[in-house]
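**Fold in tokens:**
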Amino acid sequence: MKLFVNDRQIDLATGMTVRHALIGAGLLDKAQTGEKVFDEWGNEVGLDGALSDNAKIYIGENVRNGKA
């Protein structure tokens, strides 16, 4: 499935989690140091959260409401 991490396209197998997406984007270390992950609507999501095709997640400083 295709999804986006900080607006960068990542391709993952169906059933993968937010953690897998962050690994694919090389950003898992940010989550492990306490940075929050948000979906495109500004909702905080956990590392074990499910993803769907074309999902958009964001991580990093000052990330809110789907803006990286």
About this structure: The helical segments are 18-25, 28-32. The chain has a mean pLDDT of 91. The domain at 2-59 is CATH 3.10.20 (Ubiquitin-like (UB roll)).
